[in-house]
Amino acid sequence: MRRGRPRYDDVLTPREWEVVSLLREGLSNEQIADRLRISRNTTKFHVSEILSKLGMPSREEAAAWAEQERRRRHLPGLVLALLPERATVLKAGLGSAAVATVAGIVILFAIALNGKAEQTAGPLGLIAFVRDGNLWVQGVPSGPARQLTFEDAAVRPQISPSGEWIMFERSPPLDRDRFGVWVIRTDGSGERHVLPQGRATWSPSGDVLAFAIPASPLHLGASVLVLEHADGRGRRELLPSLPGDGTLDRRGNIEWSDDGAWIVFEEHHQDRNSPTGGYSYVGIRAVRADRRDEQELFAATLPPPLSTFGVNEMPAGWAASGGGTPAFLSLTPPGPGPQVAGGLPLRLRAQLTRSTEGTGVRTLTYRDFLALSPSGDEMAIVAGVALASLLVDPSARNIPPPVDSQNEKSIVVMDLATGRTRRLTDESIVAVAPAWSPDGASIAFVARPDTGPVDLTAPRTDVEASRRLWTMARDGSGAQQLRTDGADCRQELPLWSADSTQVLFACLDTGDGASLWLVPSTGGTAVQFVADISPEPQAARLLLNGYQGHIDWEYLYDWWQP
Fold this sequence. Notes:
- 19% of the residues lie in helices and 35% in strands.
- By secondary structure, the chain is of the alpha+beta class.
């Protein structure tokens, strides 16, 4: 006698079909359990069985498969339902060949619907954005929005150079196994877990990722530098683990040169003799992607406080050079202590050598505070510090409350050949987020009136709400607020269209709602094309409040242009 559950010829049991249909609706395990009146453990078991039977790594892929399967099963029935009732009429009027033709068209239509549902880019490309913690894509300036993930835990979308893949980070609060960097195609297929922690960086040519992984499960730091295609093919080790084999050895802050030939990264060597587990070496190094050359660009001097915590040296970009090898720019902390929060001096790394040159410009380690010109010979920089009170002696008593020094923010342009700088913005405004037009003729930025220091211990004030979009010529002439009719909000992070005719920007309203808009680069009526961008609800207020007036918008969207 055969005992146990009856055999089903279908790939899934009836109960599993119920579960997978709810996965298509984007429900969580808890919601599925409540809907089907089963325990959460039983729900988790069913989801695990579904993924195992289908050979799929994620519930999103299972949901996408279920949608395709539903269409596949439904459409042949539709064909059979339509044709017999009309067969006599069709035969009489058109003949048997016509009936076959109509049937073929309907079947081809069914096949088309069951094929890959590609996300079509608009005339201005494709936007990947986060809404309520889920990843979405949409054509620019218009088109249907498509949801790609369903777990409320996605941030930092980055579209690959081809526009076919999106890399993002995931941090589900109840599932550590799904933490880390993921990739997914813009049509929703091919979702893959790349690494459980750290960051990855797209090559500028080809859908190739660079990232670091631990040398073994016993290593806490990631020191093995790896290259890999987005779909997992062709993984190769670019640099092995460090010779000292310290468990805290690490490489990170990876940056590609614009031509994809060089990779620059930060390197930390653990001090095996240090009782505090500090570092014996911190430096910036470069390696060719073909492994033909490796160079040290900079080795930091490590006074005792920094030998414990390391040095955060931020890659600032690649400059053009006549010798064919790009010059590398970086930010270097001036010494131990909390001075890093007061702004870092920008240094030039000439011709991938250890020679350095201080520029006299202090800036903060935000990527949107540095903008390399399209020609690579100049850099627009937000000059200024953050916390005035952090620059005093930390041992002093009666330290005043931290005061925002946003009133010191100005945009300067540096000639990378000479290191000379010139201020572009007027002292009456506080200017940040410079962005060069692709033709190199103009710079967009956001600014507000200089109202003096802001008490950071107070709730967020309305002073930042007065930020608006501005443009000026590359020499600073003609600076003016851009007309953005219809967008009455705090305006942030301008980005240019490839033809320099449109500017994309983020809007933040007084209720912490964020959206994306487009406006002609000459000014005019602004058009909202994404109505809501937001991280998962628990992180929304923290991220959109920002830090000292700055919001990391790269956590919420990325714009790809053909």
